[in-house]
Amino acid sequence: xxxxxxxxxxxxxxxxxxxxxxxxxxxxxxxxxxxxxxxxxxxxxxxxxxxxxxxxxxxxxxxxxxxxxxxxxxxxxxxxxxxxxxxxxxxxxxxxxxxxxxxxxxxxxxxxxxxxxxxxxxxxxxxxxxxxxxxxxxxxxxxxxxxxxxxxxxxxxxxxxxxxxxxxxxxxxxxxxxxxxxxxxxxxxxxxxxxxxxxxxxxxxxxxxxxxxxxxxxxxxxxxxxxxxxxxxxxxxxxxxxxxxxxxxxxxxxxxxxxxxxxxx
Amino acid sequence: xxxxxxxxxxxxxxxxxxxxxxxxxxxxxxxxxxxxxxxxxxxxxxxxxxxxxxxxxxxxxxxxxxxxxxxxxxxxxxxxxxxxxxxxxxxxxxxxxxxxxxxxxxxxxxxxxxxxxxxxxxxxxxxxxxxxxxxxxxxxxxxxxxxxxxxxxxxxxxxxxxxxxxxxxxxxxxxxxxxxxxxxxxxxxxxxxxxxxxxxxxxxxxxxxxxxxxxxxxxxxxxxxxxxxxxxxxxxxxxxxxxxx
Lengths: 265, 245
Prior knowledge:
By secondary structure, chain A is mostly helical. In chain A, 77% of the residues lie in helices and 0% in strands.
């Protein structure tokens, strides 16, 4: 119970930031909505040119946009919530309280979920209203796709936080670009097979590539590729454990070299 | 019973030694002053006591808990205040106090906030963002944050720095009263010698990472044959020796 109290304390601290700031709330949905508008018109244009199968093309592109936004928002929700503590120079207060590191990570995870849904839901509603695309038309399995992509966002964010603990605020710019930089390997809009052979192992080491192979199979052939889902889940567990080990190592190193007092400078 | 027991505490970085094998203790209910110039090792010592920095060597026992193995049990019973460590600026004072009540597992959160607001005259400030407060108000809020869990050990880093004499005196009076009423142990790092003379029963003089002298304020004045602690501080800072006993 005490652990839940502490986790809630940190979640409450971040909810307060959003409650008092409408620009921050707008910012959560701004990019997903913008992406949806641009890709919605683009995919309709392509669909009108290719004739038959155009609806499926629209579905694959818009499904890809929405699901990849879930990974991006999940990653940013986790890492930016941590950065808020760095920016407000509050890490010292937090780490001298009885809050355990894993409780802090739990709070960051909860904030990531909240931020992801606040960011992606308006875009999903827009996709349905403007382009008649319903993400749930993929089937109930879409929940498993979404969960896997969100978990991928968390372990990449954990890697970014480890980098900040190690290198200080100077590593902040990587927080914004790390996952976006992996977009080519996530194979959001094209199959893995289209990549050069030597690049395919890189893509297949990422859960996202398996998720999007699964999404294309569900939308195109109406089948659920459990093998890809299993690969995505297995890779997520592996990378999550590795990122967690890296975080604990860097957290201890930060305590050893006094960095927790100075991060942000 | 000791509230703090530090033995052979050492912190070395790659190119420098910040704290060099110091040992000291603070009995429960005692107020101990940590004095020294810039770079003497006061902040590093406090950070090690708080678990923010891992010592290179030595041990720390806080209220019966070994900080190397039982840190979180100790952290629940202690707290810290410094004008140099800000609270989140966008949150109101009440929201900030609520956050720390949750983090420290304080029961009856709203009652505790009301108590602190009354004791530290924070009532009119509760709904104001912490970032909009004056230096004196921020100091009182930081002190309230440090007291949310009714700590048995309170670490204060220059608690009255940047305060006008009147507000500084109010804070000092409040600390004296709080210590007398609660039996709390206080470790106070300060550059204000009058403050240390008034509040502390024991003073540790630090220089270049070591404790170069220690004693009651009266004993130090007597040893250095000085009228006030500021002169003692200057003697130590400028390597003038104490008179032989």
